[in-house]
Design goal:
mainly beta; SH3 type barrels; five-stranded antiparallel sheet; 1 helix
């Protein structure tokens, strides 16, 4: 993981992110931790379905090679 990506993830710890996975699944949760492979631990995670329904997942680990994109929260002011 690049230094820039690592810095963005460090600044995002404890904040809510939206993660899109291969296969079109979307998960929203608070970023608890991450590693150099972009494996993410999310707390209070929930899956967002295409019908905009949510399914609570709790604390989960998302394997980095399944991640298509991570949308960080707006920048702190």
């Amino acid at each position: 993981m690049s230094d820039v990506a690592s810095k963005v993830f460090e600044d995002t710890l404890g904040r809510t992110v939206l993660v899109e996975l291969k296969g079109g699944r979307c998960i929203r949760g608070k970023l608890y931790s991450f590693d150099q492979h972009m494996n993410l631990v999310l707390e209070e995670a929930e899956e967002i379905t295409s019908e905009n329904n949510t399914r609570k997942l709790g604390m989960i680990i998302v394997r980095g090679d399944n991640i298509v994109l991570v949308s960080p929260p707006p920048a702190k002011e």
